[in-house]
Amino acid sequence: MTDALEDHRGTVSIGGRPITNLWFADDIDGLAGNECELASLVEQLDKASSNFGVEINAEKTKIMTNSKEPLKKEIKVNCQILETITKFKYLGSIISDKGSKPEILSRIAQTLAALTKLKPIWNNKNIAISSKIRLLRSLVMSIFLYACESWTLNADIERRIRAMEMRCYRRLLGISYKDHTTNEEVSRKIENATC
What we know:
This protein is α+β, with helices and mostly antiparallel strands.
């Protein structure tokens, strides 16, 4: 596989460094700047695989673009047309043609589910608030922050993240939205509890 990937000269670059593929265990993600590059990359991989007696599984191999235009060229492996998709799950993260928003919304839902499961802890008056905060950060926020390094943010997503964080803190402190407590007051209470 290395032979096929080394011959591929793509136009995708990050920080001026050309990136043509990503590897994890036996998975390979090929990167191409246009349809011709992609078709050439798939053809090179298919040819290199067959030289070693290995076949690419066309049912498991997918294509995703970040272009608004659909692919014009049919890309094939073993005479089967590869399916074009708009999102997939990779190493526990959702990779989407819509950027980070689907992944972040999914993480928010998972975080709030974990928060709800720990309701007996949040309601327990015998547990110190500082201990509850440590539990929240280790058991709940870690779910949300998994693979966050690759997220792209905008104002809407930042607002949703802040709302989720405040919801967690309010649940932990036992503050209802009916109490008319501002986010600043909630933040101050959390800060004072961690000092």
